[in-house]
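User: ok so my PI wants both of these folded by tonight, can you help

Assistant: No problem, let's get them done. Here's the first:
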Amino acid sequence: MRRLRNVKIVATLGPASNDYDTIRALFEAGADVFRLNMSHGDHGEIAARHAMIRKIENDVGRPIAILADLQGPKLRVGVFAKGEEDLIVGQDFRLDLDKAEGDNTRVCLPHTEIFAALEPGSSLLVNDGKIRLKVKDCGADFANCEVTVGGTISNRKGVNVPDVVLPLAALSEKDRKDLDFVCDLGVDWLALSFVQRPEDVIEARDLTYGRAAILSKIEKPAAVTNFDAILKVSDGIMVARGDLGVELPVQNVPPIQKRLVRKCRAAAKPVIVATQMLESMIESPMPTRAEVSDVAAAIYEGADAVMLSAESAAGSFPIEAVKTMNAVAIEVESDPTYREVIDASRGGHKETVADAIVSAAREIAETTEIKAICCFTQSGATASLVARERPRVPILAMTHVVGTARRLVLTWGLHCVISAPVDRFKGAVVASTRAAVAEGFATREDLIVVTAGVPFNIPGTTNILRVAPCDERLIFAGDPE
């Protein structure tokens, strides 16, 4: 099944998409990657969804990527004697470690790490920023605050602390158990929540033992500040705009999104733009025009993937949401302006032999009658570099490593094909031409570009390029390299 667009679609599974037929319908509608949200569902439910995805993968004969999204630490206030209280602007309100039920003057905040990091002037956001508190004075077990934005505060509402780097690990005890479980299960990507510093990513990587690629969620101001260092140690990035929009002024989020997407592309690492992309489709079969424009903007920026959350997990129209996102992507990528934007944002990444090879592959493909670029890859590096170029022709990522094929599904433009191992470049050329024809990208009369690294099976050795005919008789009639 060939997609008619390059950007990938990530669909979250949940109660609305919890059976084989629905998940397969989501795939056929355009979902390339399925997200398992570890905040919802026990290990049995997660394992069942994973098994259904792998069965669909086997039935359709195409690699499918699975992304497990860890919950991360959850910071919440305690409970109130009345269940809720109304706070008004200007009043005093105290947060402390006293487990007694709260009232209009105070409530428990059972997180010593927050008090350790606070200082006078710090902000605390409650219930997704609907209530805002400013710290007047604080200590190791309390914070006396002034209410700057009032509203109703109720039991166990979430707390955000945007001004400081909290002395909290990105992995809670639950996350550690979930991480080990999903890695043993066989997910391809692991999304890490609450990332503040590169050390958070390194800790998670040490626990995966290479069983899954690490995708860092950028959802806190500290992660934006430390983004370059976080990107360097991550395999991919998710721009989680929901939490960013809570902890930062909302007008700051669009330029941050654009900047982070460009940095990921320069690093040849996939980036997902996520949160509230088609939010109204949770309850409506049609999106708003603003939501369509939001999805289109991420695609114009060159994001590798756009993501559906509650729309496909708990909404009333999960399949329609995927179809809508797919239709928007096809329309945007057929717009001549899209090509102008993508080409103009291409950097001059020619520092290595591999950079030069993939750049040459794109230029050859775009100036001659080339139907596709086929890249043989073991680790995924060659295919990722080709995708960074954002060529106008399709890219076939050829690999004998099933895990690599699944992981690369997340990357822009890659049509992943699991092939037999090869040990000579001519074998790679033959396999590429056969795949290009079989997958509908070329005919026997067409030419393709083939890239690979020689010797084979050594990661990061992209060093050879050939323009090859799809007619095998012409391949074997040429130089018997």
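One down. Here's the second:
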Amino acid sequence: MTPLRRHRMIKIVATLGPSSSTYEMIRNLFEAGADVFRLNMSHGTHGEIAERHRIIRQVEADLGRPICILADLQGPKLRVGAFANDAEDLREGQSFRLDLDDKPGDASRVTLPHPEIFKALEPGSELLVNDGKIRLRVERCGGDFAECIVTVGGTISNRKGVNVPDVVLPLAALSDKDRKDLEFVCNLGVDWLALSFVQRASDVTEARDLAQGRAAILSKIEKPAAVKAFDEILAVSDGIMVARGDLGVELPVQNVPPIQKRLVRRARNAAKPVIVATQMLESMIESPMPTRAEVSDVATAIYEGADAIMLSAESAAGQYPIEAVTTMNNVAIEVESDPTYVDIIDASRKVEHYTIADGIVSAARELAETTDIAAICCFTESGTTAYLVARERPHVPIIAITPITGVARRLTLVWGVHCETVTGNVERFKKAVINAVRVARKYGFATETDQILVTAGIPFNQPGTTNILRVAPCAEHLIVQSEPE
């Protein structure tokens, strides 16, 4: 049987949950096309999370392929308190007060147990309740209250969420729960940490200090403040998630598509993976078939050159998790076979280079596209070479070979990268080339009559030193005879 490989470049992230927590389902999801499994720390006990993690690693061992695990931290949750009647109807134009009084709410007021919000508010600020279904404008405020006018009415009920779109809140991205969850999943052995409620670069550096290198940090861009500070956030992040759900609540919905395009391109130019997430195939929670609009939405993210597209409730709690992954897989294969896709990806490529490594990977991509090259193979111990090659979005597959299992798992999130671990230290470039040829032939990326490109950094064991490019024939006896030491 041909070993498992993907026939597309973009990666698929599937969230696990009640619908996808057994060995059989998780294995089926992987075989259907899921490359990364997301553990949502907003749902499930530590025991349940640990069990899902164990099963993923079992599937990984059974199939012999590295699988990436992404733990998504909940972040601070801002909610109103409870109402005496459980719910009240608010009319447009009426007054409504938020305060710190913990008495049950009524039609005129309710508690908002977050003094940090009141400290940041000013007249004219907007508050969004229940995903923006109710909108309040602050008329007068103090350290423990906000007198508001209802600008969009509706039913407000117990403990509905509150968004404050036009204010940078004096809140850390990590709550006490997040810190405990971070330590738990890092000890468990996840590969990426998704950080919620990011507003500034310091939020990311705090998480990085706590993770201590045990997981890569992926910043979720879900607040207007994060969009404004994106360059600073990107600089200290290992990856990005465009979390369109909260962005669509806190910003006018028509602003989200151009923001998505800008963030995807900027992350790609920085050689950092970017996930497009939220509501991609939401109708498949209850339907075995997506809408045409959802398919177009998935296709748009693929055409933009995103590294990965993500399923949330579709795979975690939906009735058709395998069908949802299969749909994404099929859409990706179809889009990437479209000549227009290649034109768009090529046109969006950033051509300026700053380092020897940038020049090497650019040369690899150009050589692969203008000659008869079957794949680009990069030997990497830190992952840097693979990230740089993927940034180029070449027309041929990328094979990342590493002796470090954790690096292979992290790279599974990256566009176009097929990851393979090799045992033992590779101290000579000749050995790296031989390994590259064997992997390319094993997974059907090349035959013995093909040639591949091999990139690496010499000397080995020094991250960021990509400085060599070699054309290698895939007839292994030629490699052994001709390759210099």
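The first strand starts at residue 11 and ends at 16. Residues 175 and 229 are 21 Å apart (CA to CA). Good luck tonight!
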